[in-house]
């Protein structure tokens, strides 16, 4: 993935965060995994909506999968897995979910709360940190786990 031209970035609105997600989608290929680090309200789902739109998926279909853990979206050839691991409490929980298998497929995967993956993310996962600023400002940067 060639993210150097995109990141770090600062967005000033949810729409701008989604626009960054659309540009990020242009850098993604089937099998890529992106870990989204950031607290509640950091903009992770807005970024995911933009990635989905960039992949040809209706962004209105993208919601936080906190209670279902995994949402799968398909755009006729490109699949997007949107995972929210907030409720995963142990490595055994992550293994029961089949996390390793889910992330080794041909879908683009976005993983919210990746710290709850307990070491099951692929080694080539791209890690992004979203940090809220004043009002709707968000700072997005690639980090090393």
Can you walk me through this structure?
It is a single chain. This protein is globular. It has a seven-stranded mixed β-sheet with strand order 1-7-6-2-5-4-3, with helices on one face. It has 145 residues and is an alpha/beta fold. It is built from four helices and seven strands; from the N terminus they run E-H-E-H-E-E-H-H-E-E-E. The longest helix is centred in the N-terminal third of the chain and has 12 residues, at 14-25.
What is the N-to-C order of secondary-structure elements (H for helix, E for strand)?
A: EHEHEEHHEEE
Specify the number of helices. 4
Helix content: 10-25%
Average pLDDT: 92
Ranges with pLDDT <50 over ≥5 residues? Answer: none
Radius of gyration: 14 Å
Structural class: alpha/beta
Q: What fraction of residues sit in β-strands?
A: 25-35%
Q: Give, in spatial order, the strands making up the sheet with the most strands.
A: 1-7-6-2-5-4-3
The N- and C-terminal alpha carbons lie at a distance of 17 Å
Sheet with the most strands?
7 strands, mixed
Number of strands: 7
The dominant shape is: globular
């Amino acid at each position: 993935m060639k993210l150097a031209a995109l990141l770090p970035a600062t967005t000033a609105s949810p729409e701008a965060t989604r626009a960054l997600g659309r540009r990020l989608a242009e850098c993604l290929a089937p099998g890529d995994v992106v870990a989204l680090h950031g607290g509640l309200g950091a903009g992770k789902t807005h970024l995911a909506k933009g990635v989905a739109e960039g992949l040809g998926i209706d962004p209105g279909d993208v919601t936080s999968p906190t209670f279902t853990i995994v949402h799968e979206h398909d755009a006729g050839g490109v699949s997007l897995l949107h995972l929210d691991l907030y409720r995963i409490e142990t490595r055994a929980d992550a293994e029961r979910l089949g996390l390793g298998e889910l992330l080794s497929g041909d879908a683009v995967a976005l993983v919210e709360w990746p710290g709850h993956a307990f070491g099951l993310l692929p080694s080539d996962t791209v890690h992004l940190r979203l940090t809220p600023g004043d009002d709707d400002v968000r700072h997005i940067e690639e980090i090393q786990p």
